[in-house]
């Protein structure tokens, strides 16, 4: 005799039956919802694949369609398996195995579908982000090249100062305040020679200033056009082609600016200033005058070496400035741009992954509900779990079994009657207890 069901077991059984009813309703449209999610993912996957393929022919179209259909079918089948199997298993090892399989399958779905979905959702914006970043890199490189070129042009003031010092010394020599001999003798010619060399260098530096400004202005015009291309309407692929052409032009401008730097020229001029000195013949009338000229020339050469060293240090300081970075525009596809700038498109990535992995949440919900159903049903005996409908169905089935067995019993009884040897003999009745035998 089965024990009586307690109130807590009755409540648990009622709760389990209630959950089973809800699952029955949800099962009626869950496959449809899963199919809609898989189809949506396939559509976005098609858009992402199309952005990767260069050709626009029929074969490319069918290839993209085939890939997207394969993704949709794979997602539908994968999550259908897990929705049925994972909530049904009971052992811990089976659950862990299926959970690991779900994790591996989720990674495969992200690899084959989610990143393409993200490319479809934010591919154009990611390419525009790449264009904008490239513009910033080119702007930094252009400004750095202009800064170095301007610093080189600033050496003109240093050259002018040294040239003026030699001009002043030559004037002093002409009045006799330097060597004591008035006129334009040997010392004067040396000082004037170096002043002329520095004047030529100064003129050459000044002639490049308009070129530097012109190239910088041209670079800014190109940058403005590149910025406009990043925000214009229309297909980003066409804008990328024009952007690439402008980038090539801007790279040429930056190279010209780097070549316009006069710092190397000033370094060479400073070396020649002290090393290439043509000493004229001393023209003093007396030996004492010639000795005075020689002494003055030594002093002039010493001053010349100091001025040359000052120019060289200033020019090398410009040359030691950090050069502009080498920038080269590399066109990228929408899918590559989404990966390259993933941190800037987190919402798009989240939506692309969620549309593929949302069924994982449904699987976990089913696991919890099935566990709750089992916890409510298992403590109750089987006969106590049966509903009235199940009991009627059981009675009908039992009656059908009995009816199916009755013709076989009747056939067996008829066979026994037709063979008397199979009938057991009746026992001879004995005297009835409580009565005495009659005498004859």
From TrEMBL:
It comes from the Bacteria. The keyword Membrane applies. The chain crosses the membrane at residues 21-47, 59-82, 94-116. Residues 401-440 are annotated as: Disordered. Keywords: Membrane, Transmembrane, Transmembrane helix. Residues 412-427 have a biased composition (Basic and acidic residues). This is Uncharacterized protein.
